[in-house]
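Dear colleague,

Thank you for sharing your sequence with our group. We've completed the structure prediction you requested, and as agreed, I am returning the results in plain text so they can be pasted directly into your records. Please verify that the sequence below matches your submission; if there's any discrepancy, let me know and we will rerun it promptly.
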Amino acid sequence: MLAHQFDQVIRDYRRLRTLVPLGTLRTKKDHTRAVELLDVILDEIGENEKHPMAELADAISVFVEKYEAEHVPIPPAKPLAALRFLMREHDLRQSDLREIGSQGVVSEILGGKRELNARQIKRLAKRFGVSPAVFI
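Please find the predicted structure tokens below.
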């Protein structure tokens, strides 16, 4: 690459950085700006992975996730709330959780009348690919 072309790339990149938060997000303000831009991009591209802005959305999401992992504590969820969430995310009904017992047992667990035992916790953790601690 010729020196003058590289100089142009540097100028263009600096201009782009004033509009798009590329790189490590260091402050809450950087994070907020990145999330707002990511929302706008995702609203525009929808599910179209071939959209010209899809790669930019992927890049920004990496920086947002990194910032959130380091700066945004996630409070632990109660076991029952975690189970309900995982069921919703996986589009499961009570009858789909046969590995923890009959539909009656699952109903009692989801209704708060019965707690999960160690065997059930182990099976749920394996099914959903999460730590057993999620259900304790």
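Summary note from our side: Residues 28-45 form the longest helix (18 residues).

Kind regards,
the structure core
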